[in-house]
Amino acid sequence: MEEMSMEQVLGLVLKLEAQAKEIVKEATDRRDALPEDVERRLSEMREKYLKEAEHRISVIRDSEAEVLSKELDAVRSEHDEQMKRLERASAERSAEWAELIFRNVVGDVADVQV
After folding, report:
1. Which of 14, 20, 92, 102 is 20 to 30 A from 110 in CA distance terms?
2. What is the SS3 string spanning 31-81?
3. What span, in angstroms and rounded, lies between the C-alpha atoms of 37 and 94?
4. Dihedral (C-alpha) 53, 59, 65, 66: value to the nearest 10 degrees?
5. What local confidence, expressed as pLDDT, does residue 103 receive?
6. Which DSSP symbol is given to 109?
7. CA 10 to CA 4: how far, in whole Å?
8. Is-above-0.70 flag for pTM?
9. 108 or 91, which is more confident?
10. Measured between alpha carbons, how far is 16 from 10 in angstroms, rounded to an integer?
11. Tens digits of residue pLDDT in 5-27
12. How far is 100 from 98, CA to CA, in rounded Å?
């Protein structure tokens, strides 16, 4: 094994010191950049999840609107059917109902004594 001269030892020490300083500088730079990096990543995640939530809300809203529209159509259809039945009954029995109402209001003429 070769002996190193004092100059070689000092050169090696200076080289190692420079490398150590570079490592420390890189670590310090990363540490200093960490809060900004974390905030940027959090912001990206917030934006991503907000967009996903908005999309899900839109899908649910559309789905609910479709269900409500179908239910409303069914109610309208049932209403129309009931109105048709009522109109048929009215057409068939209106004279009978008018007579019944007249008798209930005025009374039967045969029951009246002069």
Report:
1. 92
2. HHHHHHHHHHHHHHHHHHHHHHHHHHHHHHHHHHHHHHHHHHHHHHHHHHH
3. 82
4. -160
5. 87
6. G
7. 10
8. no
9. 91
10. 10
11. 889 999 999 999 999 999 999 99
12. 5
| Tokens 């009978």, residue located | 96
Say how far apart CA 78 and CA 81 lie, in whole Å. Answer: 5
Return the exposure string of 44-83: e unless at least 16 CB atoms fall within 10 Å of the residue's CB, then b. Answer: eeeeeeeeeeeeeeeeeeeeeeeeeeeeeeeeeeeeeeee
The structure tokens 């809060």 sit at 35
What lies within 8 Å, CB to CB, of 97 at 6+ separation is 90
In this predicted structure, the answer to whether residue 65 has a pLDDT above a threshold of 90 is: yes
